[in-house]
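Annotators were shown the component list below and the corresponding predicted structure, then asked to write short factual statements about the assembly.
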Amino acid sequence: MSFDVALLFIQQGVASGLVTGSVYALLAVAIVIIYRTTDVANFAGGEFYMAAAYLAFFMIAMMALPFWLAVIATIVVMCIGAGLFQRIVLAQVALARGVAINLVIATLGLSYLVKGIVRSTGFGDTPRTFPSVVPDGSFTIGDASVSYLDVTILGAAVLVMALFFWVFNFTKTGRAMRAVGMNRRAAQLVGINLGRVEMMVWCFASAISGIAAILIAPKLLMTAEMGSVVTMAFAAAIVGGFTSLPGAVIGGFIIGITENMVGLFVSSRAINVAPFVIIMLVLIFKPQGLFGGALKVRKV
Amino acid sequence: MIKIFRTLPKLASAALLGALIVGPQAKAQAPAAEPGLTATTIKIGMFGPLSGPSMAYGFDVVNAARMYFDKINREGGIHGRRIEVVVEDDRCTANDVVAAVKKLVEQDQVFMLNGGSCSAPVVAARDYVVRSGVPWVMLNASGDGALYPPQPNIFGALSISQRAVGGSTIEFATRQLSAKRIGYINHDDAYGAWNLEAARFQAAQNGAELIVESINPAIADVTAPVLKLRAANVDAIIIATYARPAQLILKKAQELNVNKPIVIAVNAIANLRQLVENVGSREAFRNVYIQELLAAAPGSEKLAWVYDLYKQSYPELAAKPDHPQVYMPYGIPPAMVIVRALQAAGPQPTRAKVIAAIEQLNFDSGVMAGPISFSPTDRAGQKASIYFRFDGQAMTPVPGVFASRWTYQGQ
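Structure shown to annotators:
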C-alpha cells in the first residue's frame, strides 16, 4: 500500500467514522443516562431508534407532513411512549421488589414487542428510506469526500449532545436526575419526586434515540432489524465507561472510526468484530472504561 | 395314469409349499399406494415466505407456482389426476422451514414437496428430506448447501444457484465489460462463499483477477469495502449481497465518485423501485447493470402470459402496488418440472419414478434465461442470466446470455 493510499484511507476512514460514530454516540448517551439514573440496562434502546425512524417515515412519506412537524411529533410520541413504559411496566416491576434482572428482561420484552408491531404493519419488510432535507452533493476535506448529509448528521448530533449536557449539568431537572443517580434515598429525602424523574429520564433517552434515527435513516436505510445497532452503542458505552456521558460520546466516535480503520487496513470481514475486540482490550486494561473513573467498592 | 395319480399329491404339495414361500413375497412386491396419491388427486406440499422480512423473496413465487398448477388442472390435470396443494408459511427461517416440511410430510402426507425461497434455511431441511425419500423440487431458493453434494431426491436452483450467480456475473464482467480486475463484494457467510467459489473459478478461466471484499450482511458503514475497491483501480464492481447492503454500497460508490461499471447480482433486487428510491439519486445509476434470470425483461411480450395469468388468478393482489413482486415468475419453472416429471412417470406414479423422471429433464421453460436441465450428478437446474443496463428508470437489454461454467467436482 502506497503512502498516498494510506493517507486517503485514514482521512476518509475518520470522516465516515465520525458520522456513524455520532449515531453510536447518541444511542450510547441514551443508554448511559438511563443506566446512570435508574441502574437499568435498556436493551430496547435499538427498538426506540427503529420505531422512531418508522414513525417519522410514516408521517413524512405517508402523511406528507412537513419535515420539522414530523420530527417534533416523532419526538413527542417517543417521549410519551417511553414515559408510559417506565410508569406502567418498570415502576410495577420495581414495586414488586423484582431483582434488577427483571427490569432488564422487561426492556427485552419491549424490544420484541416494538419489533413485532413494526413488522405487523408490513413496512418493516423492505429496506426503506425517507427523503433527506439536505440536498445531494458532497465536498472534499483533504482527500476525504464528505456529503452534505454527513455534515448535517454530525453537526446535529453534536448539537443534541451539547444541549443534553447543558440540561443534565446546569438545569434543575438535570440536577435532579444526577441526584437520583447518586443516591435515590437521599434524593427522595430532599424532596425529589423519584417517579417523575425516572419517567423524564426515559422520555429524554427515547427522544435522543428518535433524533439519532431521523438523522441517520436517509443514510443507512430502515429495516425492522436496524435496532441491532444498539450493540455498537453498548460497545461505545462500555469503552467510554458505562456511567460517563462524555465517555459514551468519545466511545461512539472511537467505535465508528475503528470500524473503518479495521475495514480499510485489516479486512472488511473484521469490521463487525472490531468493536468487540476494543471492548475486550478496554476491559483488560481499564475495566471501568476510558472515562469510568476509579473502581468503587460498596461495603455493607 | 397310475404314475400321474402317484405324482399329483407331490405336485400339489410342491405347489402349496411354493405358494407359501412365494406368496408373501409376491404380496410384498405389489405396488403399495404412495402417500399423497388418490385416484383423482396428487397432493403437493408447498412452502415459502408468506410473511416476515423475506416475504418479497417468495410470496408471489408461491402464488405463481399455484397458478400454474391451477392452469394444469383446468386443462385436465395429469393422467386424470388434479394437483392439490397444501401451503405452509416458512418465513425464510430455518426453524420454520423444517417445521413446515415435517408437517407436510408427516401430517399432510404429501406425495412430493415444492418449496423454499431462501438459501440458508432450506439447507436446514436437507437431511430430513433425504431420510424421508420424498422428492423435493425447490422454488427459487438457490439452496447450494442442499444441492451440493447432489442428494438423491432434492432438486433446485430453478432460478439459479449461488455458484451460478457468481460464475455468470464474472462471465458478464469479463466478456461484456472487458474487465480484467474485478471488485467482488459478497457476504462473509456460507451464502457468500458459494457465489465466490464459482466467481473465482470463472475468473481464473477467463484470465481475470478478482479483488474480494466480504462484508457482514448487517454492516452499517460500507466506506471501507468501496474505498478499497476504488483504490485498487478495478475495472468493474460486482455486488452479490442482499438488498440493503447493495443499496448502501451504491450510495457510497456515488459519494466516493466511483465511476467504474457496477453489476448488481439478482440477490440485491427484491424491489427495483425501492432500490432506486433508497439510493436516492439517478446519478448513482450512471453506469449500473443488473442481472436478470428471466428469459426477457419482466413484463415483456415473451413473458406476458405469466403476468396475464397472474392478473387473472389474483386480481385483487395484482391491483395492489408492488405486485406482482419482482421474483414472481420464478415460481413457474419449478411447477413445470413437477408437471413434466409427473407426466413422464405415467398413470401409476411413484416417488422413485418421479425422481428418475426429473433426472432426465432438459427443456426450455421459455421463462428463464437458460435451459432447465438435470442429470444423475447435477441437481441445480438453471445456470444462465441476461443483463440490463439500468439508469434508474429504463432497462436496456444487453445482447447475449451469460452462463456459469462451474461444475461440482466432488469436493
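Statements collected:
1. The radius of gyration of chain B is 25 Å.
2. Chain B touches chain A at residues 52-56, 188, 213-216, 218-221, 223-225, 227-228, 231, 243-244, 247-248, 251, 255-257, 270-271, 274, 277-278, 280-281, 283 (CB under 8 Å).
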